[in-house]
Each structure stands twice: as C-alpha cells, then as structure tokens.
Write a structure and sequence with these properties.
Layout lengths: L4 E3 L3 E5 L6 E9 L6 E7 L5 E4 L2 E4 L4 E8 L11 E13 L10 H10 L6 E10 L1 H9 L3 H10 L9 H12 L4 H10 L6 H5 L4 H4 L5 H9 L14 H7 L3 H9 L14 H7 L3 H12 L8
Parallel strand pairs: 2-9
Antiparallel strand pairs: 1-3, 3-7, 4-6, 4-8, 5-7, 8-9
Helix pairs in contact: 2-3, 3-5, 5-8, 9-10, 9-11, 10-12, 11-12
Protein name: MSP domain-containing protein
InterPro entries: Ankyrin_rpt, Ankyrin_rpt-contain_sf, Ig-like_fold, MSP_dom, PapD-like_sf
Organism: Salix udensis
C-alpha cells in the first residue's frame, strides 16, 4: 500500500510547565489524490494525555491537525527531552465514500475497530518535553547533555527569551562547576549577550570568584563588555584586582580591559590592588603599563 499520509514531524515537542495544561499541534497531510483518509490516534499514556480530535477525516491531498494535550503534572518528567515511555500511534486507512459508517468521531472509532488488523497504515509519534522551564532546570543542574538536546530540538528557544530571562539563565550557567561547557552551549546556540546583561552583573562578575578564565573569554567573544560596571559601580578588573586574582587580572588586561576606570568613589582597579595589599598585582599593573611587548598600555 502506498503511503496515505505524511506527518509534520516524527516527534511531538511539548513545552512543559508544572501544574499546567501543555499543548502541541500535529499536522497530517494526505498523500491520497482520490479518497478521503481516516485517522485514529492512540497513546501509551492515556492517564497523561488527551487528543483533540482523536479521530477524523482528511480530504484528498489536504491537511488535518490535532492537538496533543498534556494534563497538568505536579512533577518533572522522569526523562527529558525524550520520553521513551510516552508515545502515540496514528492509525490511517482509506475511507470509502459509500461506507455505511458516518463520519462522527465515535463512529470512526467503531469503523477502525471493524477493520482487519493488516488493513491500516500505522505511524509512531515520539514525545519530547522541551521549553524554557526545562532548559533552566537542566542548566541549573549542569546537565550539559540535556541542555544540548533541548537546544537541538528548539532552535529558537534562546532568541525568544526576554532580556531578563536571558540574563537569569546566564547567571545560573556561569555559577556552575562546569560553567565553561554550559555557557559555551548557550552562546553557540544564540543566547543574547548585551550591555544590560553584563552591566547587571551576569558576565564577569559571576565568574570572578572561580577565576574561570575560559568562561570569561567566551563571554567577551560573544559581545560581553569587558569594562562594564556592576551595580556597585566596579568593573570585573577592579573586582579581580581587589581579590588578588592574578590570572583573571592578566586575562582581562590581555583582552583590553582598562585598569584606570574608577568606581563610584573614584578608585580604580590599580587602587583596589594597592588598598588590599596585593603587591604582586600592583607590580604587574606597573609592568604592563610600561611594557612594549604588545600588551595593553595606558
């Protein structure tokens, strides 16, 4: 038997939220030029899902859509994004115009029950749980594989985030033990980095305490402002100098951060190092300022 219908996708992706009905739409396209095609949707998890409509007819070479509705769930899916225990079976068959069965949904269900087992053409539809809620959860757990799989399935998920949500997600990612990996995944997938994000204390200000130089470099390469000030009026270089973090100081200088930018009290990163007694950092500032080996000079 030639194929009767074509699925819009072999996997239905549901934006998951706790304690909320979550919906996804699936489209069926008829490949039959002369006869209507009947369809019936079955699920392995009827306690979790509703289908609307569960049966229907598709006119020749036309389209039909149905909604998959996830009942409100008070727990996260056991596995995501793919949920192997959840799946749908789409049964299809040509529907003769002289069929004695009416086209009412209940009647179509009875019609399918009357068909021989080998007379239907069946398709499997997998289930994936995605969306910002699960992405944030995966990021907060440092689960790089799950983050990667959600981003792969929802290419526009990051570009659709508000600036505040992007800022919050980046703040969570930069605080992880494996922040370099997760931050890189987010940035490569298109997480927006702007002046408001870095000025709000997301960029370098979160990675300073860990001295995560690679993470800071990734942020700079993606547009983070190396001289942005946090809410206390201090730059990332000021904070690194005050902490005596020579590795971070050196990295920031090498990418062009300016140690002479004052905070709200008129104190610069050089002053901060001196005030805290970090003589090695002070000495390095002096060396870099007078250097002629290609490093930043002021």
């Amino acid at each position: 038997m030639e194929r009767l219908v074509e699925l819009s996708d072999a996997e239905v992706r549901i934006d998951f939220l706790l304690n909320s009905k979550c919906r996804a739409t699936v489209r069926l396209r008829s490949l039959c030029a002369t006869t209507p095609v009947a369809y019936k949707i079955q699920t392995s998890s009827p306690h979790k899902f509703l289908v609307n409509p569960p049966t229907g007819l598709i006119s020749p070479l036309s389209f039909a859509t149905f909604q998959i509705i996830l009942r409100p769930q008070n727990q996260l899916p056991p596995t995501f994004p793919r949920s192997p225990s959840d799946r749908f079976l789409i049964k299809t068959a040509p529907f003769a115009s002289d069929s004695p069965y009416p086209t009412h949904p209940d009647s179509l269900a009875s019609w399918f029950s009357s068909l021989p087992l080998d007379s239907t053409q069946d398709f499997k539809l997998k289930v994936a749980f995605v969306g910002p809620f699960l992405l944030r959860h995966a990021v907060s757990c440092g689960d790089a594989d799950t983050v990667k799989n959600i981003l792969k399935r929802q290419k526009a998920i990051l570009s659709d985030l508000t600036q505040r949500d992007a800022e919050s997600l980046l703040r969570v990612a930069t605080g992880l033990d494996n922040s370099e990996v997760v931050v890189n995944l987010l940035l490569e997938a298109g997480l927006k980095i702007g002046a408001r994000v870095t000025a709000g204390g997301v960029g370098f200000y979160q990675v300073d305490p860990r001295g995560n130089i690679k993470c800071a470099q990734l942020l700079v390469e993606s547009g983070a402002d190396k001289d942005a000030k946090s809410k206390d009026g201090r730059t990332a270089l000021y904070r690194a100098a005050a902490n005596g973090d020579r590795r971070m100081v050196e990295m920031l200088i090498d990418i062009g951060a300016n140690p002479t930018i004052p905070d709200d009290r008129g104190r610069s990163a050089m002053d901060a190092a001196r005030d805290k007694g970090h003589e090695e950092v002070v000495g390095n500032f002096t060396m870099w300022r007078t250097s002629t080996n290609g490093r930043k000079t002021w």
